[in-house]
Write a structure and sequence with these properties.
Layout (H helix, E strand, L loop, with lengths): L7 E5 L4 H10 L4 E6 L3 H4 L8 E4 L5 H14 L7 E4 L14 H29 L2 E5 L11 H20 L5 E7 L6 H5 L13 H14 L4 E3 L1 H5 L10
Parallel strand pairs: 1-2, 1-4, 2-3, 4-5, 5-6, 6-7
Helix pairs in contact: 1-7, 3-4, 4-5
């Protein structure tokens, strides 16, 4: 069973939102290394006790991959049991049309960085026969309010399918698609969901479903209200 021993788990974007909620959920049983674009000083006191932290700015895809590999080595790990590539960004253009700069940023942060990080982390995951988890979004099927974000998450879905086939037998690969959660991502994107915000799931509940899905290694998995109402936050495998 995947949850039978302490695991070495990397979570990108682990200093805020769903990444931080997942880290807090796993901190008691596992060794964690988190990453984000904020400095060590900015995240001091916000991370789970014992968790390591590496600065890795996703807007520099190649640099972020190098930073993760370097950070893992400096943290004293020679392998990885789980890599959760969760970091992401998005914008909701007021007129419905993203600027070229915003489109490139969404694709760099959400897709290209994940692709380069996945390949950079492969040797460490292979050594442990580990699991690569890409965090997508229910928006991967298309969203009029956030087109570039939706496109980048659709790309992640395709990337997971390709790597799952390419790495079969060596590294497990999955993509999880969370539904809307009560994090700050919509405010940062400039999108007001209005009354729909009241239907967003709590980050802790989404994190619980994420942990269970990671333990099961299935792909793809949608983490939405339907799964939550069926007990998804409280049942399933333990990570």
């Amino acid at each position: 069973m995947i949850g039978a021993k302490s695991r070495r788990i990397l979570i990108t974007g682990g200093n805020a939102g769903l990444g931080l909620a997942l880290a807090k959920k796993l901190a008691r049983r596992h060794k964690l290394l988190l990453s984000g674009r904020k400095s060590q000083d900015e995240v001091a006191g916000k991370l789970p006790p014992g968790a390591g932290y590496v600065v890795a700015d996703q807007s520099d895809p190649e640099g972020s991959a190098q930073a993760l590999v370097r950070g893992i080595s400096e943290f004293g790990w020679d392998g990885l049991d789980n890599a959760v590539l969760n970091a992401g960004t998005g914008t909701a253009p007021a007129d419905g049309v993203d600027s070229t700069e915003a489109i490139r940023r969404s694709l760099d942060v959400n897709l290209l960085a994940a692709l380069l990080q996945a390949h950079a982390l492969y040797p460490m995951l292979e050594k442990s026969r580990g699991t690569l988890t890409l965090i997508g979004s229910v928006a991967h099927k298309g969203s009029a309010a956030i087109p570039a974000y939706a496109a980048s998450k659709a790309g992640l879905h395709g990337l997971a399918r390709a790597l799952r086939s390419e790495w079969k037998g060596a590294v497990s690969v999955q993509v999880l698609h969370p539904g809307p959660a009560k994090t700050g991502i919509h405010d940062k994107a400039g999108y007001d969901p209005g009354l729909m915000r009241s239907l967003f799931l709590a980050p802790d509940d989404v994190a619980s479903m994420m942990a269970s899905a990671i333990a099961a290694r299935r792909s793809p998995v949608t983490l939405s209200w339907v799964r939550y109402l069926n007990g998804g936050a409280y049942t399933g495998r333990r990570l």
